[in-house]
Each structure stands twice: as C-alpha cells, then as structure tokens.
Amino acid sequence: MSKYVLKYSFLVCVILVSMGLIQSCKSKKQLLKTQVANNDSLAGRCRLDFKSAKTLTNHLKETAFTYNWIYAKASVVAKVDSEENSLDIRVRGRKDSAILITIQALSMVDVAKVLITRDSVFMRIDVKRQYFKGDFNYINELLNADLDFDVIQALLFGNYAEFDEDETKLKPVTDRQNCRYLLSTERKRKLRKIVQGQKELRKSLQTMTLNPETYKILKNEFVDAETNRKFTVTYDKFNVKDSVYAPHLVNIDIVAEKKVSVKIDYVRIEKNQPQKLSLNIPSKYEPIPIKKTK
User: Fold this and answer.
1) Which domain holds residue 67?
2) CA 99, 239, 159, 178 torsion: positive or negative?
3) Is residue 211 part of a domain?
4) Alpha-carbon distance 149 to 193, whole Å?
C-alpha cells in the first residue's frame, strides 16, 4: 500500500477543492444521490421572485455555517476512472487559521497528516517516513490550480468563498425551470506562469446554485477557460446532527485528463471545541520527491 500513500494524501488535502489533481485513493459504498428539494418546480409552478446579487450574497453570508473551532469525521470514497478506493479522515480546524486533516486506512491506522495554514501546506507520510513542506504558490504550480486557504475552508462545509478584489460583479440568475437561484462570476486567475508568461489573463467561471428557501449552496461549479477543466461540488443531507446544521454529504466531480469523483460522508461534525492543530516532522523523515507537472 505504501506506494499509493502519497497519492492518497494529495487526494484528500487538495482534490477537495482543486481543479487539477488527478490522483487516486477502494470500496463499493453506495452514497445518497443529491436530493431534489420539494418545491413548485416539480409541477411546473416555480414562483421565485428575482433577487439581486447583493441580496443573494447577503443571504449566503447570513445562512453560512459558522464556527470558531471544528471537528469532523468522514468516510471518503474516491474514484479515478475505474479505480476506486476508500479511507477515513478526521478534519480539525480553527476558523480562518488552520486545518489539520488526518488520513486513516479502514483499519483505523493513521496513514498521513496534512496541516494547511493561510500560507503553508505541510504533509507527513508516516508509513513511508516522508514529509512535504510548501506553500500555495508551489501547490498551484504543481497542480495548475488556483487555491488558497479561504477556498478550502469554505468548500469543505458548503460556504461561500469570496474572491480577489478585482473580480467582476456577481451575476444573479433566476432558474425557474429548476426553481433555483444562481450566482455566477468570472475571475482573473493569478497564477505565476500567467502573470509572467502571457499578456492576456485568462478567466475562470464559477456558478453557485442556491436553495431558494434556505439559501444554502447546493452546487458550486468551476470551469477553467484555459485548461477546459471542470470542477463541481454538490452538497446534500442538510440536517441537524450533533446540534450542527450543515451538509453531511459532499460530492466532488472533476473532469480533466481523467475523470475523478470524491464522496465525503460526514458521520460526525462538532463545533466550538478547541482542537490541537500541530504537525511535527521527525528528524529521520525524508523530503518527498515531487515533480511539477508541465
């Protein structure tokens, strides 16, 4: 199993939000499909009123899943083309500060840990006695992605991640066919290779689908105009569990060089209990040799 550990770890720590990681982690679990909300659209009688982007954005912020500290336990099923694997993860975090992800085999043995801060990414592969230290600039170049801490933090629990100040204004759409509100935006990518090597900045499109009753995000879709990659996250099983109202099922689908799907089934979510967020690297561990993609 050891030769796959690096793939598993990058899968969990980055594929959750990246538009470019094509790796893999095995099971045949059946997870619930995204539920269709009970509304008039099913009978062709959607009566949604138009709402401005400002109004929808305010609703997003008002109904966001809030916490100071977070602890979550989840089972993860990941599939790359026809290869499917499963594992367990523990997510510990402090709002706007750090996220610690512990990756476990089904035997409950720790396989790896990943610590993500606002400007750094640390990873320790225990079964191989290896480690990685880097930042988001390196990760973005490695994966041809556009990641930061805020995006990872938001997408893990279905919240809205604000973008750079130079983003164009959000555009509202009233989708009466499906009885949903949509918010879309184009934002300029700031990858180093684009800034240094191209005159024209490419744009990527993000579209959020909102529940018209709760204003929770049901789907968050990213399309990269430069690479034609598509990244979609859908949220389901919104319920109160352990006194927490949040999506307990997160489905991630990536279409790029390969088709990747990741299903995160949260079996436990607790908030506002202080967590230990640290990652020690033993002196005997060796750096992970990683080659950047072209």
Assistant:
1) 2-30+46-274
2) positive
3) yes
4) 20
Handedness of CA 20, 25, 30, 31 (dihedral sign): negative
pLDDT digits (tens, 9 = 90+) for 216-263: 999 998 887 777 778 889 999 998 876 778 899 999 888 877 788 889
User: For residue 40, is it within any domain?
Assistant: no
Split into its structural domains, the chain has a count of: 1
Amino acid at 216: K
Long-range contacts of 237-242 (CB under 8 A, 24+ apart): 237/32, 237/35, 238/214, 241/268, 241/269, 242/268, 242/269, 242/270
pLDDT per residue over 267-282, tens digit each? Answer: 999 999 999 999 999 9
The CATH code of the domain that includes 155 is 2.50.20.10
3-state secondary structure of 199: coil
Query: What confidence score (pLDDT) does residue 224 get?
Result: 75
